[in-house]
Amino acid sequence: MQITANNPSRKSWLEVSSNSDFPIQNIPFGVFLTKDNVMTIGSRIGEYAIDLSALHQLGYFKDIELVDDVFLQDRLNDFIAHGKGIWRQVRNRIADLFDIENAKLQNKKKHRNQIIYDVQDIEMHLPVNVGDYTDFYSSKEHATNVGTIFRDPDNALLPNWLHLPVGYHGRSSSIVPTGKNIHRPYGQSKPAGAEKPVFGPSKLVDFELEMAFITTDVNKLGERIAIENAEDYIFGLVLFNDWSARDIQAWEYVPLGPFLGKSFASTISPWIVTLDALEPFRIESPKQDPKPFEYLQQIGANSFDIQLETFIKPENSDENLVTKSNFKYMYWTMAQQLTHHTSNGCNVRAGDMMGSGTISGPTPDSYGSMLELSWRGTKPIKLSDGSERKFINDNDTVIMRGTCKNKDVKIGFGECSSKLLPAL
Amino acid sequence: MQITANNPSRKSWLEVSSNSDFPIQNIPFGVFLTKDNVMTIGSRIGEYAIDLSALHQLGYFKDIELVDDVFLQDRLNDFIAHGKGIWRQVRNRIADLFDIENAKLQNKKKHRNQIIYDVQDIEMHLPVNVGDYTDFYSSKEHATNVGTIFRDPDNALLPNWLHLPVGYHGRSSSIVPTGKNIHRPYGQSKPAGAEKPVFGPSKLVDFELEMAFITTDVNKLGERIAIENAEDYIFGLVLFNDWSARDIQAWEYVPLGPFLGKSFASTISPWIVTLDALEPFRIESPKQDPKPFEYLQQIGANSFDIQLETFIKPENSDENLVTKSNFKYMYWTMAQQLTHHTSNGCNVRAGDMMGSGTISGPTPDSYGSMLELSWRGTKPIKLSDGSERKFINDNDTVIMRGTCKNKDVKIGFGECSSKLLPAL
Predict the structure, then answer these.
(1) A137: nearest CA in chain B?
(2) For B350, left (φ over 0), alpha (ψ -120 to 50), or beta?
(3) Residue B41: what pLDDT?
(4) What is the pLDDT of residue B160?
């Protein structure tokens, strides 16, 4: 089936400003609470949220094979489990219904009133119940920077890095949607030169600029998938701030990896932008040398050109752009990550989330964490209010944005934003 | 409220053999499918399974504050979320109803027929939907053995180990109940002396003898808990085989920890034995030196005397006891593990599972993995059929058992059993 929703010449009868992240070519999916206290699955065009459970109830999806209550839920998991064919039909239908050439819904004021909300009047919630969350480490620049800072500049990349997408299991419970503020975590750390560890609030809280993809049911336990099919199981992407407490992490992570240095919070943007919507922004990923194992080999344009920005906004002050990066810098593609994840037979389910790892670019202004931007605190960043940052201060808000642009259309991810409150 | 269910002088009107793991003093919780294809929550006495949804429907719990359909579910999460007070009331009630001194249910044949199944006629399922699974590394003997084998015998324990319960996030999706057979995983590894890694079936599949505890809702994101309260959030324990592919693990795990070397499968015993039932088997944990941070300090008997055994059963041959260990060897207690887990504000939910880490004792016959028992393959183990094992062979079944005994009573965990099928 064609992705007719992506037609760049479409316009919506809903007003959309030219710089909106959400033109009719986007049609993302999310979960929101209406002002009438109803939790529903929805989409968004411009500054309007669209209640998909109301649309379904009014019969606008009646020829699509959907379970009756699929949209009257507080998480997208069941819808995602319907699979790619259904996602595409639903997204195409929404685009048709809101197309300025289509009078069907446009002329039904009563229906419109049941379906359309001002985004100011809704509250965004977590879009999926994340069964398992995996974080990869797939930016060569990031892995090289971290290896240089913490280990050995001459052997910054570890021997396995170029052969497989290194990843680890993360914590699902502490994934929160944009706007949920978090607290500076307590933890054990061992200050440089100290004989003994200390316990107290982390002194080195950092962001990590990442994106994460959300899967549908991929495989049964024991089965592997072929890389050619991997993208069929990816529903869409969100922006992902993998908050990290560097001092806690450094003390705890040998030999079993990051644990409490990460699990105090991870913030995601609330609208899942589908892989279908990103189709016009395909781009080749970096050349891989050495050639990967056959089960990881791909041809063609398997990455996406998504411009990423991170801002620090101190309390009562302005946003400061601290880094500009791009999803296309990732050395390992999403299809490679997912295929590798199932290579041992590990089963992946609808609603699982996989983070890219920190996305650093080749230049110092494109690094994806304060650890790298301030080079472990040796090069503080100057903000517009005159203050300096080595890491994140109490009451700083960290805001991530991501957009795709070509000559016809711009689509975006909205915001991934969260304020770091003082330790409790 | 008293734990009257534990009264050692109770006898049940259901027949229980003297060596059963499930006397009336146990009353574990699990999920099973009946021969009529109904999924229900249940308990067990002797060779009989008890349908708790039927008991509830017939009014036997009517004065306990339970949601109507709490037992007519395919997972225990909602029941567990009711909290410790309710678990205790329900367990006490079940013990009362099946007490030989109580005629109430004993004399109602019609009710008994709706409630009681022969365990041969039911199929045990996964007891909880595991939201997040964490694996600790809390046996000093195991950590010392692994450090000696892989790193440096003179500095086997890493510097953080005596200060905090080292742990990492694991994979929930591939946790399976006893009886579900698994496949030898494929993966990348780098053979000793080789220049390049290879991809193929793992050659070094191992078991890890562990136990795991299951929590109720502990805290909101950002909150920590006090160690004095930690046990109130622990519902119960199961046996846990943390299957490990040593060759995959060795190649992938630096620097972010175990990933595909573990996530191909973990097997658990299906009956959750409550912490209440284990109360008579409290014992002090090993003395901790150095003294832990204040947030991890405990007094009294905070561990449990649970004898553990692991058997290897080759295809068409006998069970071979390969190790005898004990839960009491754990250096860090469950309360310390859980308190540490929330020390950064990480939220823990009903149905989360936390593994102990491999439980090795002080003597070579008490080591909890083949890696240690065969000392990385240098000391093969002889089986009764004349064959040798360094690691686990195709079609070997690995069986774990755990029992608590005192002069009055023996309670046990049943079996955690799974066969390793050849690679697919």
Answers:
(1) B256
(2) beta
(3) 98
(4) 97
Q: Does residue A151 carry a pLDDT above 90?
A: no
| C-beta pairs of B9-13 under 8 Å, 24+ apart in sequence | B9/B408, B10/B95, B10/B99, B10/B100, B11/B99, B11/B100, B12/B45, B12/B46, B12/B98, B12/B99, B12/B100, B13/B98, B13/B99, B13/B100, B13/B102, B13/B106
**Chain region(s) in chain A for CATH 3.90.850.10:** 133-421
Strand partners, A12: A99
pLDDT at A98: 98
B160 min Cα distance to partner chain A (Å)? 6
CA separation for the pair B136, B139 (Å, rounded): 9
List the beta bridge partners of residue A304: A282
C-beta of residue B324 within 8 angstroms of C-beta of residue B308: yes
Active site residue A163: no
pTM score = 0.98
Cα separation, B259 vs B283, whole angstroms: 34
Note the ipTM here: 0.97
CATH number of B4-125: 2.30.30.230
> Which of A132, A168, A252 is opposite residue B256, by nearest beta carbon?
A168
β A397-405/A307-313 pair status: antiparallel
Q: Among B344, B346, B358, pick the best mutation site for testing chain A contact (most A Cβ within 10 A).
A: B344
A172 contact B CB<8A? yes
Q: Convert A246-277 to b/e letters by CB count within 10 Å (16 or more is b).
A: bbbbbbbbebbbbbbbbbbbbbbbbbbbbbbb
Average pLDDT over residues B84-92: 98
Confidence at A1, pLDDT banded by 50, 70, 90? confident
Chain A stretch 17-76, residues whose beta carbon is closer than 8 A to a beta carbon of chain B: none
Listed residue (A129, A111, A128, A130) closest to A50, CA to CA: A111
- Give dist(CA A361, CA B246) in Å, integer: 34
Q: Which of A142, A183, A340, A341 is catalytic?
A: A142
SS3 track for A72-83: CCCCCHHHHHCC
Q: Does A233 touch chain B (CB under 8 A)?
A: no
C-beta of residue B324 within 8 angstroms of C-beta of residue B360 = no
Token pair belonging to A251? 């003390």
Contact A347, A134 (CB under 8 A): no
CA B222 to each of CA A162, A173, B73, B341: distance values in angstroms, whole numbers, following the listed order = 37, 12, 31, 12
Binning pLDDT at 50, 70 and 90, where does residue B1 land?
confident
Closest CA to B251 of B207, B187, B306: B187
CB-facing half-sphere around the CA of A71: CA atoms within 13 A = 23
Interface of B with A in 322-351 (CB under 8 A): 340-341, 343-349
* SS3 state of residue A370: helix
Structure tokens at A293: 């194992």
Question: Is domain A133-421 classified as CATH 3.90.850.10?
Answer: yes
State the Cα–Cα distance between residues B108 and B4, nearest whole angstrom: 24
Which two three-digit tokens encode residue B216? 């109720």
Q: Where in chain A is the domain with CATH 2.30.30.230?
A: 4-125
- Answer yes or no: are the C-beta atoms of B388 and B364 closer than 8 Å: no
Burial string for B182-207 (b: 16+ CB within 10 Å, else e) reads bbbbbbbbbeeeeeebebebbbbbbb
Q: What digits encode the pLDDT tens for the residues B207-253? A: 999 999 999 999 999 999 999 999 999 999 999 999 999 999 999 99
Distance CA A407, CA A199 (A): 53
Task: Provide the sign of the torsion angle of the four alpha carbons B257, B263, B269, B274, taken in this order.
Answer: positive
